[in-house]
Amino acid sequence: MSEYVKQANDVTIYYENGDVYNGSLKMGKRNGNGSYREISTKRVYNGEWVNDERNGIGSLTSEDLQYIYDGEWKNGMMNGNGQLIDKKSKYSGTFVK
Predict the structure, then answer these.
(1) CB atoms within 10 A of CB 41
(2) Beta strand segments in 15-86, E
(3) What is the pTM assigned to this prediction?
(4) How far is CA 29 from CA 16, 33, 61, in A?
(5) Whole-angstrom Cα distance, residue 26 to residue 82?
(6) How confident is residue 36, by pLDDT bands cut at 50, 70 and 90?
């Protein structure tokens, strides 16, 4: 079971798998601005959420900075204008899911 900690207008949720969300909730779902740390991938998403999915502007970054995406999201996927940088390449332009 997840553990909720409320702080002013934001909450912090500690998931059983070790992931952590810090940000806004609406009707029990991630909505508005928030940060989500994924333990399994060692990546952090900072940005906008709608109905528990990444939607709007946000960035996904690995802890070692070997992977960085900064741009638009739709329904949890990179979609729209953005920039992706990994250890082998760099792409700036339009992403389509």
Answers:
(1) 12
(2) 20-26, 29-38, 43-50, 53-62, 67-74, 77-86
(3) 0.87
(4) 17, 12, 22
(5) 27
(6) very high
